[in-house]
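debug: dumping io for the single-chain case to check the tokenizer round-trip. Nothing else runs in this session.
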Amino acid sequence: MNVHTDTLRVRVASRSTETQDICSLELVPVEGTTLPAFTAGAHVDVHLPGGLVRQYSLCNRPGETHRYQIGVLRDAASRGGSQAVHEALLEGTELDISTPRNLFALSDSAPHHLLLAGGIGITPLLAMAEHLSAQGASFELHHCTRSRDRTPFVPRITAASYAQKAHHHFDDGDAAQKLDIATTLAQAPAGTHLYVCGPQGFMDAVLNAGRAAGWPEERLHREYFAAAPVDHTGDGSFEMEIASTGRVIPVRADQTALAALHEAGLDIPMSCEQGICGTCLTGVKAGKPDHRDQYLTPEEREACDQFLPCCSRASSPRLVLDL
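debug: decoded output
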């Protein structure tokens, strides 16, 4: 299988406990003195023990090239990635990561930026806040968590140059300090771009509120950390035709479309295998995809001209792929 092969060897220079279930890691280059520059919202693929590869957002200031910083929640429902980070990546550990990629970039044309984070979703928004503050750009940051003692990076945000633009909202606090999503959106300046990251329910609530208020999709930016559960009991087989050659590739009921393409020898890049990063996005020339990703917008899904073969399937007997 094809994964991104541009890797960097790094060492865990320091590790901090942010909350009882969140740690942050500072990664520095093993060879040389600098790492590739990155932009706010970028992430890296982290190669973990046991062959696992997971994506984590970079949360330090984008101008820094002497280190990368990530924050990781130990998730009880983890598929092994967060557990490996918390148990195996100790100070001094060397590991491989990918070069940074950005699928959650800030808009250069936005007059105002509204950053909404739920829990560990604060990580990419920290880098955004750092960048926007350095640029003197207009923005506001809201962070929703269960309680103050479960909130990561509080000292960092409190001491930041943008502290007055940052707001914390705790589930166990009084009603007055809780985030009113609809009101927050209604009070945003005209043309504001929204950026949201966090648990599925939080993100759905924010995005649905934006759509209900008439915000166009191009002003609603999001990044998912994990895919929503999918029921595979009704999955059936289907076929994929390669448009350039006419070759037909069958996909078994218990097989992903991406696995079938790789098995047939096609070099399709992949990363998350959950339909959240967009790496394996493939064009569709005919047929109707059964979209199961969290990457495409509703309008992009409706167009039926692309799909994510790592998780999506077909509603029609055959998909003709633009390959």
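debug: round-trip ok. Confidence is low (pLDDT under 50) at residues 1-5.
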